[in-house]
Amino acid sequence: MAVIRVRAGVLDRARKQAGVKSEQAFAQLLGVSRETIRLVEAGERIPSNPFIAALCVTTRKPLHELVTVGR
After folding, report:
1. What pLDDT shows up at residue 50?
2. Predicted confidence (pLDDT) per residue in 32-60, tens digit
3. CA-based nearest residue to 55, from 19, 6, 22, 9
4. In terms of pLDDT, which residue wins out, 17 or 24?
5. DSSP string, 3-59
6. Which residues, including other chains, have CB under 8 Å from residue 67's CB and lie 6 or more apart?
7. What pLDDT band is residue 25 in, cutting at 50, 70 and 90?
8. pLDDT value of residue 36
9. Residues 6 or more apart from 5 whose CB is under 8 A from it?
10. Using CA atoms, how far apart are residues 58 and 10, in angstroms rounded to an integer?
11. What is the pTM of this model?
């Protein structure tokens, strides 16, 4: 089964691009907890479809620029 992961550094760049100062505020913008952000960044949690969709909308970037697909 393929596994989707957020590319390294994407969440931090997205937060800064969105003009959001804190990780907590960015997490709220994406509709997740700060812990979820941390786990996704560390590769310890696979991001949900709603998380990925919110990330695409927030960054205004296509999916292929934000995630990698592997096994």
Report:
1. 94
2. 999 999 999 898 999 999 999 999 998 88
3. 6
4. 24
5. EEEEPTTHHHHHHHHTT---HHHHHHHHTS-HHHHHHHHHTSSPPPHHHHHHHHHHH
6. 4, 5, 6, 7, 10, 47, 52
7. very high
8. 94
9. 43, 46, 47, 67, 68, 69, 70
10. 12
11. 0.83
The answer to whether residues 22 and 66 touch, using CB atoms and an 8 Å cutoff, is: no
Here the tokens at position 13 are: 């760049």
Assigned token pair, 20: 């959001």
**Structural domains of the chain in order of their starting residue, each with its CATH number:** 3-70 (1.10.260.40)
